[in-house]
From TrEMBL:
It comes from Huiozyma naganishii (strain ATCC MYA-139 / BCRC 22969 / CBS 8797 / KCTC 17520 / NBRC 10181 / NCYC 3082 / Yp74L-3). Belongs to the OSBP family. GO terms for biological process: endocytosis; exocytosis; maintenance of cell polarity; piecemeal microautophagy of the nucleus. One of its GO terms (molecular function) is oxysterol binding. This is Oxysterol-binding protein. It comes from the Eukaryota. GO terms for cellular component: cytosol; membrane. The gene is KNAG0A03000. It holds the Pfam family Oxysterol_BP. PANTHER family: OXYSTEROL-BINDING PROTEIN HOMOLOG 4-RELATED, OXYSTEROL-BINDING PROTEIN-RELATED.
Length: 433
């Protein structure tokens, strides 16, 4: 593998990073660290382990004991299925690109209205479609929805990041947004963890997750996931400890968890069940081994059949220039796209119009109960409010997983979240999956 760390372009890039503040997308980087993939493609990591994703909906009273012998109830089995799927998505989202000698690259920054659509085909279990849309440019926000009609499962959510460089040249990233899974057997709120990029000094960035994230089930069960990495003296990279409690109340009361799953989210984890840390705890057994789980590639239409707003069509020339490593061509092709965007914004301003999102709508959850009018095209969904309430998490626009009453929650006022409008997608005859 080429060592770029001593190259003059990298050292001057490091210098520009040390004094950088603001939107990461405006930071110009050397070609070898640029990815030809837009950030709008990232939601595919939620679905690229189709078996695990669809299992969440397929678990029922008849099969749950066979699939999860530890589970005492079907709800516990469903929660374990969500955790297993979540570990696989963590691997996809945060470590798959930097494995086997690879490293994290700077993805393309999606333009307002950018779309990325595709599907996972499965004759037996039915197709899962995925739609993503860049719903805001400043700040950048990407909304997504994955749906499998046959298994009656939907995952929707949105993602926004805020990043800053520390003095030691570590890129710290806070995530905003969440995912909601809905099935006929129950729903789940999934918050997303904070992270940082290590290895910038040696030109080999990779992600390490930090702090906590939550999975709240409509059954009341809650899972708290704690992340840590390799320290100077001890610790292992990508470490996770997931504790499942019967409710937020028992978590707060420091009750013994029902299950403790620990290990590496990018590798092997083990589970201890049955009053997990108590005297009658079971012996640890393998819970999941991410390296053995098959990745199902998303099927995306050829570029020539895509709508002009679809990501791979819109970024085609830039992606080719990145693959060639041609800095001049990268800058020319990128400027062409960015200037066209600037022109659009200018025209909107002149005409006093604004960009209308296609399939997603911003919903204001402040005073939600009052506004819940079913006559409205987009009634406020009770699912989110009920799950966020059970978990004691803030409904405001704060870092994902912030608790109610924490400083950020007290200081922030807005509670706007992006939600999928199935009716708008069904009416759309311009974009096909
Ligand atoms: C931090 C990151 C962009 C954001 C990516 C996010 C947080 C996006 C939402 C996904 O659901 C999860 C996700 C996974 C990625 O791991 C994370 C990216 C990793 C690197 C990238 C940086 C912007 C790259 C910066 C590159 C340097 C050289 C400045």
């Amino acid at each position: 593998m080429t060592d770029y760390s001593q190259s003059s372009t990298w050292t001057s890039f490091l210098k520009s990073m040390s004094s950088f503040s603001g939107d990461l997308s405006s930071l110009s980087a050397p070609p070898f660290i640029l990815s030809p993939m837009s950030l709008s493609e990232f939601p595919q990591y939620w679905g690229c382990h189709q078996g695990l994703f669809l299992n969440i909906a397929r678990i029922n009273k008849e099969n749950y004991h066979k699939l999860y012998p530890h589970a005492k109830t079907v709800d516990e089995a469903r929660m374990l299925a969500v955790i297993k799927w979540f570990f696989a998505t963590l691997h996809g989202q945060y470590s798959s690109r930097s494995e086997k000698g690879g490293f994290e690259k700077k993805p393309l920054n999606p333009f307002l209205g950018e779309l990325f659509v595709g599907k996972w085909e499965n004759e037996k279990l039915g197709d899962t479609t995925m739609l993503t849309e860049q719903v805001s440019h400043h700040p950048p926000i990407n909304a997504y929805c994955l749906n499998n009609e046959k298994q009656d499962i939907t995952l929707q959510g949105y993602s926004q990041i805020k990043s800053s460089f520390s003095k030691t040249l570590r890129l710290n990233v806070k995530q905003f947004g969440h995912s909601i899974i809905e099935t006929s057997g129950g729903s789940f709120l999934v918050t997303v963890p904070a992270l940082h990029l290590e290895g910038l000094l040696v030109a080999s960035p990779h992600v390490e997750l930090e702090d906590k994230s939550y999975i709240q089930s409509s059954s009341g069960l809650i899972c708290v996931l704690e992340y840590s990495g390799k320290g100077y003296f001890s610790g292992q990279k990508n470490t996770v400890k997931a504790k499942v409690y019967s409710s937020m109340k028992s978590l707060k009361e420091n009750a013994t968890p029902l299950y403790v799953i620990s290990g590496q989210w990018s590798g092997v984890t083990t589970i201890v069940a049955g009053n997990a840390t108590g005297t009658n705890a079971s012996k640890p057994t393998i819970f999941s081994d991410v390296s053995k789980i098959k990745v199902d590639p998303l099927v995306v239409k050829p570029v020539e059949d895509q709508h002009p707003l679809e990501s791979r069509k819109a970024w085609y020339d830039v992606a080719k220039a990145i693959e060639l490593g041609d800095m001049k061509l990268i800058s020319q092709t990128k400027s062409k796209l960015e200037n066209a965007q600037r022109q659009l914004r200018k025209e909107e301003k002149e005409n006093k119009t604004h960009w209308k999102t296609r399939w997603f709508e911003k919903v204001d959850y402040n005073g939600a109960a009052k506004k819940n009018d079913p006559e409205d095209g987009n009634p406020i969904d009770g699912t989110y409010l009920s799950l966020v309430g059970m978990a004691g998490l803030s409904i405001k626009n704060v870092a994902s997983g912030t608790k109610t009453g924490e400083k950020e929650d007290r200081l922030n006022k807005t509670a706007d979240h992006w939600r999928f409008r199935k009716d708008l997608w069904e009416k759309d005859d311009e974009v096909i999956v």
